[in-house]
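Predicting holo structure, protoporphyrin IX containing FE bound.
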Amino acid sequence: MADTAQSIDVEVPDPWSLPLEGFDVSKAEIFQQNKQGEYFRRLRQEAPVHYCPDSAVGAYWSVTKYNDIIAVDSNHKVFSSVPSIVIGDPSDDFQPPMFIAMDPPIHDIQRKAAQPAVAPSQLSELEDLIRQRVCNILDGLPVGQEFNWVDRVSIELTTQMLATLFDYPFEDRHKLPFWSDVATTSDAVGVAGADMEWRMKHLNECLASFTELWHQRAAEPRKFDFISLLAHDPQTKDMVNNPIELLGNLMLLIVGGNDTTRNSISGGVYFLNKFPDQYAKLKADPSLIPNMVSEIIRYQTPLAHMRRVATEDTELGGQKIRKGDKVVMWYVSGNRDEEAIERPDEFLIDRQNARRHVSFGFGIHRCMGNRVAEMQLRILWEEIMNRFEHVEVVGEPERVLSNFVLGYTHLPVVLHAKA
Ligand code: HEM
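Done. Tokens:
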């Protein structure tokens, strides 16, 4: 995202000074300036299911409380994922279908075909390889010198993981995060003026590369990477003949595993520095790592929202939602809901029920890669603790401009070796 995000210097207004009517949380600069906390606190307190009649992304409902989010996410019959899961509408001339933005039956068929790549049995197969890659990355880092953690660790590690899940040629792996950036840079997530011609050029390159890979995999015995699985499943084997559908699902699988895990990797380092008592707790007891991983994912909430469309008139939180209305579940708010989560603004690595967050969603679309993301973070932190006394954050991070992906473009750190 770093190359394409515009920087916005004007400070967003104090949310408590704005009228609730027309209160608009879709502005990407709110998130880039990390000011969303008070915006959503206001909504949770005064209008937990709130209607914004007009914004750059049109009219939309905001659902901000934990239980209401679960209610919407678990009811795919009334709240459809078609035509898109981001707040902005897809452009009329470019709407690649992907299973995250579909309802049953097609959703279920395509998810089932791809899922074995990240099934528990497959993950235990991958664990050694991931650990080896984590160790290589960490062993190559400079000790005692400032560098950007986002580039050297977060992006590199998630890129290697993605290349593994696709069994994509390892030497070309850096194309994957680039295509992910191209796919996520759009008006639909609040990045105005994204150049469509530029996007299409690169997305076509992505499609061409994976089409070639697909034909190779189809001719070989079935393996457990995403492409081989889709190419061999009787229900999806013809997807290659529908290039726009193939591109849509590639975008889903590339983006799904990229920004999310990347930003959780950066977020963890940042939070431990913001909450030094928690870093001390981790050093005293590294067995807290698996629990901490869930807390990092809650506290970061790498995807701020998912959007649905009401398929019938319905009621939520005392508000009448009409058929066709856009309904946005703000996970970033649900994860800070004081009524559902104790001391939600604190990062507590030994939090009880740390996995009870909404960052992975609920229901039929619940994140397919949640276990692989957790495993990656767990291994990373085990190996960090084996090597470094301290990962010191030496400056404030720069953040992504998006109302969808919450994350960092720059996080300056200095590593301190173990004595
Ligand atoms: C779906 C978050 C990592 C693949 C989702 C959803 C969320 C999410 C919020 C939608 C849930 C809903 O609508 O109810 C995250 C977070 C991650 C992460 C926070 C990391 C911390 C991954 C990884 C992959 C992945 C590593 C693997 C490539 C997917 C896919 C879907 C999905 C394919 C669509 C599932 C469906 O529609 O059935 N993710 N994700 N995600 N995620 Fe993740």
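The domain at 15-417 is CATH 1.10.630.10 (Cytochrome p450).
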